[in-house]
Amino acid sequence: MVVATTGFFDGVHRGHLSVIEKVASLSKEKQGRAVVVTFWPHPRAVLQQDAARFRLLTSLQEKKDLLKGYGIDDVVVLKFDKEFASQSTRQFFRDYLVKEIGVNLLVAGYDHRVGNDLSQTQEEMFEIARHEGITPVKIDEFRAADSNSKVSSTKIRELISEGSIEMANELLAYRYGLQGVVVEGRRIGRTLGFPTANMQLYEPLKVLPGDGVYAVWAGYGGRVFKGITNIGTRPTIANGNERTIETHILDFDEDIYGLTLKIELVSKMRNETKFSSLGELIDQLKLDRELSHKFLSDKEIKLR
Questions:
Q1: Is 31 a domain residue?
Q2: How many domains is the chain partitioned into structurally?
């Protein structure tokens, strides 16, 4: 017995969980496998005009890890291109869900549809599923309890881009993270008494938070530290518009160039500012460090 759902699931957020948890619970009830059939790259990056500007909440590996953390046994990734997008609902069900994966039950969100027929209703899609031997299971729309508003990947991307990290984390049900390799910078931070790890993202299409200074948890080598991350152009010490991700790890003094660093953003502390002198910048960094210590002292330390 294979219980499955299909979709891109960018962010694997609260709006997705009712579908994912239903797949997991039904698979246990039926003593079967819980499967998510997803796609890569994002359909919007293939089919729409803004592909070059489109950004993601989760890398493919992050998405897989999150789904399996919610009880999914297998994540099947299908290559999404224009040829794939041109197939009908019946082709997709027959060639992929039935022949390749052996799906018996298909869980679908309230407005989820597949196939190239944009005028097709969900009930018509369900009829095609039944004809192909798949039993559809419909899940009602999830809305945030505090605002009764729809939770969507688009909304969360907007919140992160504007720096509203705490609101985004609430809708994600986890802390938004960035991961990359630590690369050589200009080492100016060290001369100021605030050495920083300059991160080059492993997934360049990840949504970057709006420019500013953030309290973060920083993970390296299996250990977790408090940290301060600056995202922006460093207007006090840099000339130009290059955007960087620099993290000052508190109570830490190790050479980690070339190694992997992961940060999870907890809260935005302030906007990025151009100071009139390096002395003024140092004074502010001391305040940032003190505030970060206090802010993170009562927060959960564990990283995903």
A1: yes
A2: 2
Predicted TM-score of the model (pTM): 0.91
Domain holding 84, by residue range, is: 2-138
Q: What single letter denotes the amino acid at residue 193?
A: G
DSSP code for 187: -
Decide if 59 contacts 203 (C-beta within 8 A): yes
| 32 and 122 housed in the same domain | yes
| Residues sharing a CB contact under 8 Å with residue 61, sequence separation 6 or more, in sequence order | none
Q: What percent of the chain has pLDDT over 90?
A: 70
Residue 88: the pLDDT is 95
Decide if 65 is inside a domain. yes
Answer yes or no: 290 catalytic: no
Query: E strands along the chain, which residues?
Result: 2-6, 33-40, 74-79, 105-108, 135-138, 177-183, 197-201, 212-220, 223-232, 244-249, 260-270
User: Exactly one of 29, 83, 127, 246 is catalytic; which is it?
Assistant: 246
Give me the pLDDT at residue 282, please.
87
Residue 145 has pLDDT above 90, yes or no: no
User: d(Cα 61, Cα 69) in Å, to the nearest integer?
Assistant: 12
CATH number of the domain enclosing 74: 3.40.50.620
240 — pLDDT class (breaks 50, 70, 90): low
CATH code assigned at 181: 2.40.30.30
Residue 1 has pLDDT above 70, yes or no: yes
